[in-house]
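Chain A, query sequence.
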Amino acid sequence: METRITQILGIAYPIFQGGMAWVAEWNLASAVSKAGGLGIIGAGGAPASFVREQIRKVKEVTDRPFGVNLMLMNPEADAIARVIVEEQVPVVTTGAGNPGKYMALWKEAGVKVIPVVASSAMAKLMERAGADAVVAEGMESGGHIGNITTFALVPQVVDAVSIPVIAAGGIADGRGFAAAFMLGAEAVQVGTRFVVAKESIVHENYKRKILGAKDIDSQVTGMSHGHPVRQIRNQMTREYLKLEKEGASFEELEQLTLGALRKAVVDGDTVNGTLMAGQVAGLVSREETCKEIIDDLMGGWNLLAAKAHVGM
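Chain A, predicted structure.
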């Protein structure tokens, strides 16, 4: 299967693994890339030295294309932007801001730049800035989210720009893959399902919470201060939403979640940790290898071909 994304990036399948902080480290990213997708290292709030180490570990085990996701709010974003160039990372995706200040640096080094966007206006801005593609991420996704659903966002972004669009948010199987392509996307980005991949280093407690989740088990915190995050409900989300309703300040709420994602991913704290997951958690029922996940997603291409054959 070829799309502009597979051609531009040199990957076998138009499937990205989300750049999830603490989750998307070198083990997961390299496994996805080996399986023919685009594995992505999540820089999150990590220091530049950690990101450099992760990049080098991926390169030790595969020569397939991979990427780094730079969260632009990271205090060391400038240093990480330079590390991406110095370590010759083929692809960078960005989140939580506008990567315009780094665009010239990356483009001059031949890095493919693919920002994550939550609106057609931001997609247009990124195209003008020189982005090679954009990830249109709907609010069904886990972690930091926008305000528009995937089904509404993707076709509007597709219509707004001429560069390729990758659909994200609410995609976990071949049906979601097929739906994204029907909306005009040329690739998909998947997060929640890869969290429970066999190659994922996420604590078993976290994985079990996703594997046992239902469609109504996620909540969005942070709506009141403009930084909404989707996660599986637990004691921490209940306390956060209570404080938010009472009008707690952003700083007070931030203290509640300080280090909470690491608690969940590394320590397996499912009570007070942040269990980031999308609304598709209810579709994820078993732990599989990255190759098995990609093979299942690619079943969506066969579904599209079958529907086209019968004239649907």
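The longest strand covers residues 66-71. The chain has a mean pLDDT of 93.
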